[in-house]
Design goal:
By secondary structure, this protein is an alpha+beta fold. Helix content is about 50%, strand content about 5%.
Length: about 260
Amino acid sequence: MNNLTRRSAGLAALAGLAGGTATQAAPGKGGASLPPIVIYHLEGRRSERVVWLMEELGFPYRLEFKRGDLQGSMDLIREFSPIVPMAPTVKYGDQILVESGAILELIVNRHAPGRLQPGLSSRDYPHYLMWMHFAEGSLASRLFSDYRAWMARPPKERSRMVDSEAVVEFAEAFLREHPWFGGAAFSAADIMMHFPLRVATDLNLVDRAQFPKVAEWKARVEARPAYRRMLAKARPDGMIGSLPPLPQHAPSGPRPAQPR
């Protein structure tokens, strides 16, 4: 047994004594047997997606974090997975996984076929898959890039390139025509999209009043019983360690014309 394996085994044993949601191998309905799942978590961050998914599916898992202590929670992750310490880090059986979108797709595809995603041959599936990846690849990456730039220098005009308002407007336009990001029904794509759309308004990157469909969708997803259970377990004291909102966001309206 190597040092990393010893540390992982020791942490798992201590975590079992610390409590949390009991974990045991359990069959997914219509899918492969689910291995033990341990979610290493930071409160209010992307790891909430995995907790929320497990609550929606009713699957067992164990949640590992230090309540009210982001640094302590990060230290747990770093001790368990020192090379790439990030949240979520998930122990899936004897494998270590990162990237919330990939973790959600793995669990749904392998252990919950027919649940929380449209059928592969349906018209909704291409949209579902696009939003699963847009959430991080285009939306979150644009938001945090603008946040860093605008904290250093508050914007005086819209960017000539795709900016935070544009990527949120893309989501708003879709929700004018569809009730959910998976199309006709709530899906894992809605779980993926919630975090960056919350960030967009909470950090004042965009004017929430400009996006009423996003606001209405957000109210519906946050009313779901599984979301409320996730909050009670994964964010029991509310948001901690929040980034400060921008003092101002870019003026709303059309972007300047591209130079010819």
